[in-house]
UniProtKB/TrEMBL annotation:
<keyword id="KW-0472">Membrane</keyword>
<keyword id="KW-0540">Nuclease</keyword>
<dbReference type="GO" id="GO:0004518">
    <property type="term" value="F:nuclease activity"/>
</dbReference>
<dbReference type="InterPro" id="IPR002716">
    <property type="entry name" value="PIN_dom"/>
</dbReference>
<keyword id="KW-0812">Transmembrane</keyword>
<dbReference type="Pfam" id="PF01938">
    <property type="entry name" value="TRAM"/>
</dbReference>
<dbReference type="InterPro" id="IPR052041">
    <property type="entry name" value="Nucleic_acid_metab_PIN/TRAM"/>
</dbReference>
<feature type="transmembrane region" description="Helical">
    <location>
        <begin position="7"/>
        <end position="28"/>
    </location>
</feature>
<feature type="transmembrane region" description="Helical">
    <location>
        <begin position="40"/>
        <end position="61"/>
    </location>
</feature>
<dbReference type="GO" id="GO:0016787">
    <property type="term" value="F:hydrolase activity"/>
</dbReference>
<dbReference type="InterPro" id="IPR029060">
    <property type="entry name" value="PIN-like_dom_sf"/>
</dbReference>
<protein>
    <submittedName>
        <fullName>PIN/TRAM domain-containing protein</fullName>
    </submittedName>
</protein>
<feature type="transmembrane region" description="Helical">
    <location>
        <begin position="109"/>
        <end position="129"/>
    </location>
</feature>
<feature type="transmembrane region" description="Helical">
    <location>
        <begin position="81"/>
        <end position="103"/>
    </location>
</feature>
<keyword id="KW-0460">Magnesium</keyword>
<feature type="domain" description="TRAM">
    <location>
        <begin position="290"/>
        <end position="356"/>
    </location>
</feature>
<keyword id="KW-0378">Hydrolase</keyword>
Length: 358
Protein backbone atom coordinates (compact mmCIF):
# COMPACT_ATOMS: atom_id res chain seq x y z
CA UNK A 1 0.00 0.00 0.00
CA UNK A 2 2.79 2.40 0.89
CA UNK A 3 4.53 1.77 -2.41
CA UNK A 4 1.40 2.75 -4.33
CA UNK A 5 1.11 5.91 -2.24
CA UNK A 6 4.72 6.74 -3.10
CA UNK A 7 4.06 6.20 -6.82
CA UNK A 8 0.95 8.40 -6.72
CA UNK A 9 2.68 11.19 -4.80
CA UNK A 10 5.67 11.11 -7.12
CA UNK A 11 3.29 11.26 -10.08
CA UNK A 12 1.56 14.33 -8.63
CA UNK A 13 4.90 16.04 -8.01
CA UNK A 14 6.05 15.16 -11.52
CA UNK A 15 2.86 16.47 -13.08
CA UNK A 16 3.18 19.76 -11.19
CA UNK A 17 6.79 20.21 -12.22
CA UNK A 18 5.96 19.22 -15.80
CA UNK A 19 3.23 21.84 -16.09
CA UNK A 20 5.41 24.60 -14.65
CA UNK A 21 8.84 23.67 -16.01
CA UNK A 22 8.45 21.99 -19.42
CA UNK A 23 7.18 25.16 -21.17
CA UNK A 24 10.48 26.79 -20.23
CA UNK A 25 12.35 23.72 -21.56
CA UNK A 26 10.44 23.91 -24.89
CA UNK A 27 11.28 27.61 -25.06
CA UNK A 28 14.95 26.88 -24.36
CA UNK A 29 15.07 24.55 -27.35
CA UNK A 30 12.90 26.90 -29.45
CA UNK A 31 10.05 24.42 -29.62
CA UNK A 32 7.25 26.67 -28.36
CA UNK A 33 5.03 25.67 -31.26
CA UNK A 34 5.57 21.97 -30.63
CA UNK A 35 2.33 19.99 -30.50
CA UNK A 36 3.46 18.49 -27.20
CA UNK A 37 3.74 21.93 -25.60
CA UNK A 38 0.35 21.76 -23.93
CA UNK A 39 -0.49 21.88 -20.26
CA UNK A 40 -2.04 18.41 -20.13
CA UNK A 41 0.76 16.83 -22.14
CA UNK A 42 3.46 18.56 -20.08
CA UNK A 43 1.84 17.36 -16.87
CA UNK A 44 1.52 13.83 -18.24
CA UNK A 45 5.18 13.76 -19.32
CA UNK A 46 6.31 14.96 -15.89
CA UNK A 47 4.08 12.43 -14.13
CA UNK A 48 5.38 9.53 -16.26
CA UNK A 49 9.01 10.49 -15.63
CA UNK A 50 8.54 10.75 -11.87
CA UNK A 51 6.48 7.55 -11.63
CA UNK A 52 9.28 5.70 -13.44
CA UNK A 53 11.78 7.24 -11.03
CA UNK A 54 9.62 6.18 -8.09
CA UNK A 55 9.99 2.51 -9.08
CA UNK A 56 13.76 2.86 -8.80
CA UNK A 57 13.57 4.91 -5.60
CA UNK A 58 10.77 3.01 -3.85
CA UNK A 59 13.09 0.80 -1.78
CA UNK A 60 15.08 3.81 -0.64
CA UNK A 61 11.92 5.73 0.22
CA UNK A 62 10.44 2.72 2.05
CA UNK A 63 13.56 2.43 4.21
CA UNK A 64 13.37 6.14 4.95
CA UNK A 65 9.70 5.82 5.92
CA UNK A 66 10.48 2.85 8.15
CA UNK A 67 13.17 4.82 9.98
CA UNK A 68 10.73 7.71 10.28
CA UNK A 69 8.12 5.39 11.82
CA UNK A 70 10.63 4.09 14.34
CA UNK A 71 11.67 7.60 15.28
CA UNK A 72 8.07 8.75 15.68
CA UNK A 73 7.30 5.87 18.05
CA UNK A 74 10.30 6.75 20.20
CA UNK A 75 9.81 10.51 20.37
CA UNK A 76 7.41 11.79 23.02
CA UNK A 77 4.40 13.82 21.92
CA UNK A 78 5.61 17.18 23.25
CA UNK A 79 8.89 16.91 21.34
CA UNK A 80 7.03 15.88 18.19
CA UNK A 81 4.78 18.94 18.43
CA UNK A 82 7.80 21.17 19.00
CA UNK A 83 9.54 19.72 15.92
CA UNK A 84 6.36 20.26 13.90
CA UNK A 85 6.35 23.93 14.93
CA UNK A 86 9.95 24.20 13.72
CA UNK A 87 9.02 22.66 10.37
CA UNK A 88 6.08 25.06 9.96
CA UNK A 89 8.29 28.06 10.75
CA UNK A 90 10.88 26.87 8.23
CA UNK A 91 8.18 26.35 5.63
CA UNK A 92 6.78 29.83 6.26
CA UNK A 93 10.18 31.48 5.88
CA UNK A 94 10.78 29.48 2.69
CA UNK A 95 7.49 30.58 1.15
CA UNK A 96 8.19 34.22 2.01
CA UNK A 97 11.64 34.05 0.43
CA UNK A 98 10.22 32.60 -2.80
CA UNK A 99 7.95 35.61 -3.36
CA UNK A 100 10.78 37.82 -4.76
CA UNK A 101 11.91 34.92 -6.96
CA UNK A 102 8.45 34.52 -8.45
CA UNK A 103 8.45 38.20 -9.46
CA UNK A 104 11.50 37.68 -11.68
CA UNK A 105 9.43 35.74 -14.20
CA UNK A 106 12.16 33.17 -14.84
CA UNK A 107 10.68 29.66 -14.56
CA UNK A 108 13.88 27.98 -13.37
CA UNK A 109 14.09 30.44 -10.48
CA UNK A 110 10.42 30.73 -9.65
CA UNK A 111 9.78 26.99 -9.72
CA UNK A 112 12.77 24.70 -9.22
CA UNK A 113 14.88 26.91 -6.95
CA UNK A 114 11.80 27.98 -5.01
CA UNK A 115 10.85 24.34 -4.47
CA UNK A 116 14.37 23.44 -3.29
CA UNK A 117 14.46 26.51 -1.03
CA UNK A 118 11.13 25.65 0.62
CA UNK A 119 12.12 22.02 1.22
CA UNK A 120 15.54 23.04 2.53
CA UNK A 121 14.18 25.58 5.00
CA UNK A 122 11.44 23.19 6.11
CA UNK A 123 14.11 20.59 6.90
CA UNK A 124 16.30 23.22 8.57
CA UNK A 125 13.46 24.37 10.81
CA UNK A 126 12.66 20.80 11.82
CA UNK A 127 16.31 19.97 12.50
CA UNK A 128 17.00 23.09 14.56
CA UNK A 129 13.97 22.52 16.77
CA UNK A 130 14.81 18.82 17.05
CA UNK A 131 18.44 19.33 18.10
CA UNK A 132 18.10 22.59 20.02
CA UNK A 133 14.50 22.34 21.15
CA UNK A 134 15.27 22.40 24.87
CA UNK A 135 17.36 25.54 24.57
CA UNK A 136 14.79 27.30 22.38
CA UNK A 137 12.07 26.39 24.87
CA UNK A 138 14.04 27.90 27.74
CA UNK A 139 14.84 31.06 25.80
CA UNK A 140 11.28 31.65 24.59
CA UNK A 141 9.18 30.48 27.52
CA UNK A 142 11.37 30.97 30.54
CA UNK A 143 12.72 34.34 29.43
CA UNK A 144 16.09 33.92 31.04
CA UNK A 145 18.14 37.05 31.02
CA UNK A 146 21.34 35.44 29.84
CA UNK A 147 21.55 32.95 27.03
CA UNK A 148 24.62 31.48 28.69
CA UNK A 149 22.49 30.44 31.62
CA UNK A 150 20.13 28.66 29.26
CA UNK A 151 22.73 26.98 27.12
CA UNK A 152 23.75 23.63 28.50
CA UNK A 153 26.84 22.67 26.54
CA UNK A 154 27.41 19.08 25.66
CA UNK A 155 30.50 17.52 27.15
CA UNK A 156 32.75 17.15 24.14
CA UNK A 157 35.55 14.77 23.45
CA UNK A 158 38.69 15.72 25.28
CA UNK A 159 36.87 17.78 27.91
CA UNK A 160 38.23 17.48 31.44
CA UNK A 161 35.82 17.48 34.34
CA UNK A 162 37.60 16.70 37.60
CA UNK A 163 34.56 17.90 39.53
CA UNK A 164 32.01 16.06 37.39
CA UNK A 165 29.90 13.04 38.23
CA UNK A 166 28.68 10.54 35.63
CA UNK A 167 25.40 8.76 36.30
CA UNK A 168 25.02 5.13 35.31
CA UNK A 169 21.76 3.38 34.47
CA UNK A 170 21.20 1.95 37.96
CA UNK A 171 21.56 5.33 39.67
CA UNK A 172 19.10 6.93 37.24
CA UNK A 173 16.51 4.18 37.72
CA UNK A 174 17.02 4.39 41.49
CA UNK A 175 15.80 7.99 41.35
CA UNK A 176 17.22 9.21 44.65
CA UNK A 177 19.83 11.33 42.86
CA UNK A 178 16.99 13.71 41.95
CA UNK A 179 16.13 14.22 45.62
CA UNK A 180 19.79 14.82 46.44
CA UNK A 181 20.04 17.44 43.69
CA UNK A 182 16.92 19.18 44.99
CA UNK A 183 18.58 19.65 48.37
CA UNK A 184 21.35 21.68 46.73
CA UNK A 185 24.16 19.62 48.24
CA UNK A 186 25.56 18.79 44.79
CA UNK A 187 27.05 21.73 42.92
CA UNK A 188 29.36 19.67 40.71
CA UNK A 189 28.55 18.96 37.10
CA UNK A 190 26.30 15.91 36.70
CA UNK A 191 26.63 14.11 33.36
CA UNK A 192 24.13 11.69 31.85
CA UNK A 193 25.76 10.00 28.81
CA UNK A 194 23.63 9.42 25.76
CA UNK A 195 24.46 5.70 25.77
CA UNK A 196 22.86 5.47 29.22
CA UNK A 197 19.70 7.01 27.75
CA UNK A 198 19.77 4.42 24.96
CA UNK A 199 20.02 1.63 27.54
CA UNK A 200 17.08 3.12 29.43
CA UNK A 201 15.13 3.18 26.20
CA UNK A 202 15.89 -0.49 25.58
CA UNK A 203 14.76 -1.32 29.12
CA UNK A 204 11.57 0.69 28.66
CA UNK A 205 10.82 -1.32 25.51
CA UNK A 206 11.26 -4.63 27.34
CA UNK A 207 8.48 -7.22 27.32
CA UNK A 208 8.94 -7.61 31.08
CA UNK A 209 6.44 -5.23 32.77
CA UNK A 210 8.78 -4.59 35.71
CA UNK A 211 11.75 -3.74 33.52
CA UNK A 212 9.55 -1.62 31.28
CA UNK A 213 8.29 0.35 34.27
CA UNK A 214 11.84 0.88 35.54
CA UNK A 215 13.04 2.06 32.14
CA UNK A 216 10.21 4.55 31.77
CA UNK A 217 10.75 5.81 35.30
CA UNK A 218 14.41 6.34 34.44
CA UNK A 219 13.56 8.31 31.30
CA UNK A 220 11.09 10.45 33.24
CA UNK A 221 13.74 11.13 35.85
CA UNK A 222 16.22 12.27 33.19
CA UNK A 223 13.64 14.79 31.97
CA UNK A 224 13.39 16.08 35.54
CA UNK A 225 17.17 16.21 35.89
CA UNK A 226 17.45 18.45 32.82
CA UNK A 227 15.80 21.23 34.81
CA UNK A 228 18.99 21.65 36.85
CA UNK A 229 21.69 23.94 35.47
CA UNK A 230 24.51 21.62 36.52
CA UNK A 231 23.06 18.59 34.69
CA UNK A 232 24.26 17.89 31.16
CA UNK A 233 23.37 15.29 28.55
CA UNK A 234 26.55 14.13 26.85
CA UNK A 235 26.68 12.88 23.26
CA UNK A 236 29.96 11.13 23.93
CA UNK A 237 29.98 7.54 22.73
CA UNK A 238 32.41 4.75 21.94
CA UNK A 239 31.39 2.90 18.81
CA UNK A 240 34.06 0.26 19.35
CA UNK A 241 32.59 -0.74 22.74
CA UNK A 242 29.26 -2.51 23.16
CA UNK A 243 28.94 -2.82 26.95
CA UNK A 244 27.54 0.26 28.68
CA UNK A 245 29.54 -0.40 31.86
CA UNK A 246 32.79 -0.45 29.91
CA UNK A 247 31.84 2.80 28.19
CA UNK A 248 31.11 4.41 31.57
CA UNK A 249 34.47 3.38 33.00
CA UNK A 250 36.35 4.61 29.95
CA UNK A 251 34.46 7.90 29.89
CA UNK A 252 35.05 8.51 33.60
CA UNK A 253 38.75 7.71 33.21
CA UNK A 254 39.17 10.00 30.22
CA UNK A 255 37.67 13.11 31.80
CA UNK A 256 38.63 12.34 35.40
CA UNK A 257 35.04 12.23 36.62
CA UNK A 258 33.47 10.27 39.45
CA UNK A 259 31.03 7.47 38.68
CA UNK A 260 27.68 7.37 40.46
CA UNK A 261 26.29 3.83 40.60
CA UNK A 262 24.33 1.36 42.71
CA UNK A 263 25.72 -1.60 40.77
CA UNK A 264 27.89 -3.68 43.12
CA UNK A 265 29.91 -5.35 40.35
CA UNK A 266 30.50 -2.09 38.48
CA UNK A 267 31.55 -0.56 41.78
CA UNK A 268 34.25 -3.20 42.26
CA UNK A 269 35.53 -3.01 38.68
CA UNK A 270 35.69 0.79 38.90
CA UNK A 271 37.76 0.60 42.07
CA UNK A 272 40.19 -1.79 40.37
CA UNK A 273 40.58 0.61 37.44
CA UNK A 274 41.12 3.57 39.74
CA UNK A 275 37.80 5.30 39.04
CA UNK A 276 36.26 7.06 42.02
CA UNK A 277 32.81 5.64 42.76
CA UNK A 278 29.94 7.32 44.57
CA UNK A 279 27.24 4.94 45.77
CA UNK A 280 23.78 6.27 46.56
CA UNK A 281 23.27 3.46 49.07
CA UNK A 282 26.38 4.54 50.97
CA UNK A 283 25.05 8.08 51.03
CA UNK A 284 21.68 6.90 52.30
CA UNK A 285 23.33 4.92 55.10
CA UNK A 286 25.53 7.85 56.01
CA UNK A 287 22.62 10.24 56.55
CA UNK A 288 20.50 7.86 58.59
CA UNK A 289 19.59 8.92 62.09
CA UNK A 290 22.43 8.17 64.49
CA UNK A 291 21.27 6.69 67.78
CA UNK A 292 23.42 5.93 70.81
CA UNK A 293 22.90 3.44 73.60
CA UNK A 294 20.67 4.90 76.29
CA UNK A 295 18.84 7.31 73.97
CA UNK A 296 15.05 7.26 74.20
CA UNK A 297 12.76 7.51 71.17
CA UNK A 298 9.07 7.04 70.44
CA UNK A 299 8.12 4.45 67.83
CA UNK A 300 5.07 2.51 66.63
CA UNK A 301 5.14 -1.28 66.86
CA UNK A 302 4.46 -2.64 63.35
CA UNK A 303 4.65 -6.41 63.77
CA UNK A 304 5.94 -9.24 65.92
CA UNK A 305 9.61 -10.10 65.91
CA UNK A 306 11.27 -13.43 65.17
CA UNK A 307 11.71 -14.16 68.86
CA UNK A 308 8.94 -14.50 71.43
CA UNK A 309 7.66 -11.29 73.00
CA UNK A 310 9.62 -9.14 70.54
CA UNK A 311 8.04 -6.34 68.54
CA UNK A 312 9.44 -4.62 65.47
CA UNK A 313 9.31 -0.92 64.61
CA UNK A 314 10.98 1.21 61.96
CA UNK A 315 12.57 4.63 61.98
CA UNK A 316 11.57 7.10 59.22
CA UNK A 317 14.77 6.21 57.33
CA UNK A 318 13.84 2.51 57.31
CA UNK A 319 16.12 1.34 60.11
CA UNK A 320 14.61 -1.62 61.95
CA UNK A 321 14.24 -1.55 65.72
CA UNK A 322 13.63 -4.74 67.69
CA UNK A 323 11.95 -4.09 71.07
CA UNK A 324 11.63 -6.62 73.86
CA UNK A 325 8.25 -7.41 75.45
CA UNK A 326 6.15 -5.58 72.85
CA UNK A 327 4.76 -8.46 70.77
CA UNK A 328 1.23 -7.70 71.97
CA UNK A 329 1.47 -3.95 71.34
CA UNK A 330 1.00 -3.96 67.56
CA UNK A 331 -0.02 -0.51 66.19
CA UNK A 332 0.70 1.14 69.54
CA UNK A 333 3.15 3.96 70.18
CA UNK A 334 5.74 3.17 72.81
CA UNK A 335 8.71 4.92 74.34
CA UNK A 336 11.83 2.77 74.09
CA UNK A 337 15.45 3.05 75.12
CA UNK A 338 18.25 1.98 72.78
CA UNK A 339 20.13 -1.00 74.21
CA UNK A 340 22.36 -2.04 71.31
CA UNK A 341 23.22 -0.87 67.78
CA UNK A 342 24.46 -3.42 65.25
CA UNK A 343 25.96 -2.50 61.88
CA UNK A 344 25.66 -5.28 59.30
CA UNK A 345 26.25 -5.55 55.56
CA UNK A 346 22.50 -5.22 55.08
CA UNK A 347 22.35 -2.05 57.16
CA UNK A 348 21.85 -1.13 60.80
CA UNK A 349 19.71 -2.92 63.34
CA UNK A 350 18.78 -1.44 66.69
CA UNK A 351 17.74 -3.37 69.80
CA UNK A 352 15.74 -1.48 72.39
CA UNK A 353 13.87 -2.01 75.63
CA UNK A 354 10.44 -0.78 76.57
CA UNK A 355 10.34 2.31 78.77
CA UNK A 356 6.69 3.25 78.76
CA UNK A 357 3.70 2.15 76.65
CA UNK A 358 1.11 4.70 75.55
Amino acid sequence: MRRWIIHVLMGIVGASLGITTLPWVWHLFRQEGNAFNQEIVNGLIGAIIFVILSFFMSNLLMRALKKLDQKITRVNLSKMVFNFIGAILGLTVGVLLTIPLSLLGVPVLSNIISFVLIIGLLYLGYTVFDKRGDEIFKIVFRKRKEVAAVDKPVVKEGTTAQHAMILDTSSVIDGRILDVLKTGFISDKVIVPNFVLLELQLISDSSDPLKRAKGRRGLDLVNSLKEFDNVEISNKDYKDIREVDTKLLRYASEIGAKLVTNDFNLNKVAEIQGVIVLNINDLANAVKTQLVVGEQIEVTIIREGSERQQGVAYLPDGTMIVIEDTAKMIDKKVLVEVAKVLQTSAGRMIFAELVNAK
